[in-house]
Amino acid sequence: MIEKISKLRDTAIGRIKEAVSSTEVEELRVKLLGKKGELTEMLKDLKNMDIEERKQFGQEANALKNELTEIIEGKFKELSANDVKKSLSSGSNFDISLPGTNFKLGSLHPVTIVQKEIERIFTGMGFNIVDGPEAEEEFFNFEALNIPKHHPARDMQDTYWLENGSLLRTHTSPCQVRAMQKYGAPLKVIAPGRCFRNESTDASHENTFFQLEGMMIDKNVSIANLIYVMKLLLSEVFQRDVKIRLRPGFFPFVEPGFELDLNCMICGGKGCPTCKHSGWIELLPCGMVHPNVLRYGGIDPEEYTGFAFGLGLTRLAMMKYGISDIRVLNSGDLRAMEQFSVR
Ligand code: DAH
């Protein structure tokens, strides 16, 4: 029996060495080591042997199996390296200038791109980035922002209520009071995040969208500081001079309050569905923090003043990239998102 093995070893190694193609080596592998291969067949005789013989034969057969496997693998490698060399030198139809197989890279969502950009601008001015829960307490979303129950301002912010009395936050403004309570004054923070409203959707309204809240509190902060920071923000984001207008706006948590509008970049101010045919996009409501709100945050309004703003991140991304319908952003349509992938 042992002789049979050493014979098989000699012929097998010879045959593998002589093989000239990978197909040939594969055929040999099956013939020798496959389920019905020569070595496998030999092992079937094991059951007829006595214990001593079986032990010795088993060991030899196993050693041969390992040896042949190794030689076969080596031969495969050698042949495939040869194949490449051959086709390169034969000048056949191997064209190294052909483009490779393309694979798709993922991309950041346009809102994320704009958010990161604004975070960069504000952290450069010494602001910290803070966070708040999307399922928010009624107190932070309304009361602490000077919007008591039955205040008509709640009508404009209808949302989804949870059974435990919380709600899906209608804006990022609740982060104002959370940040004041946590860090006190002086304070410079921004809070980007997802917001929700019970809206009928159209080109500029969605039930889910992103805002970025900002707040600066210190001694002697004034409207001049507010306007300076807002202008800096917009010119950095658009990398050019933008046309804006400031008009009075009412928000219970600021006094005075403003609406900062941006000349519509989709239509250039002529009027289109995105700007509701007005030529202007409401982008940056802002104002001086109401004394009641400072008090809710545990800050003395006699000592400190501050400004706050609530930037429509989703709208800003639409303006920056010329996206005319907000619904595209949550649609999951790859044709829209692929345009932002890194090539
Ligand atoms: N939270 C307001 C909204 O979603 C926007 C807003 C207005 C935020 C004025 C502010 C602000 O910080 O000062 O309608």
TrEMBL record:
Cofactor list: Mg(2+)
A Pfam family assignment: tRNA-synt_2d
Start and end residues of each Aminoacyl-transfer RNA synthetases class-II family profile domain: 114-339
Molecular function GO labels: ATP binding; catalytic activity, acting on a protein; magnesium ion binding; phenylalanine-tRNA ligase activity; transferase activity; tRNA binding
Top-rank taxon: Bacteria
EC number: 6.1.1.20
Keywords: Aminoacyl-tRNA synthetase, ATP-binding, Cytoplasm, Ligase, Magnesium, Metal-binding, Nucleotide-binding, Protein biosynthesis
Residues given in the record as Mg(2+) binding sites: 255
NCBIfam families registered for this protein in UniProt: pheS
Name this protein carries in UniProt: Phenylalanine--tRNA ligase alpha subunit
Source organism per UniProt: Ruminiclostridium papyrosolvens C7
Gene: pheS
